User: What shape does this take?
Amino acid sequence: MSEFGGTYVNPLTDFGFKKIFGEELSVARISNFSPEEKVGYEESLKYYRDINNVVDTSREEGREEGWEGAIVMVVRTMLSNGVSKELICQSTGLSMEEVEKLEKTFR
Assistant: This one.
């Protein structure tokens, strides 16, 4: 592998194509890859995209879990401070059933 040099994209350690290849990869340069270089490049690009998607999904799921946990903490605090369930529903967007279910878990 001449120009490609056996290098591949590792998203865990490499932070961009410029760092890996020493310059930005242009379409013209990629089109001049040998068949082996193209396969290596495509595989590393697929690997990079797969890892990126896993990280993005994990972040999204983490945000959702964090948001749900924050709502539970807010409801617990509001209930312990004597705030009415109606106001809690208005403030959090939860239904009365959801607030009552949470209230039971706090006892």
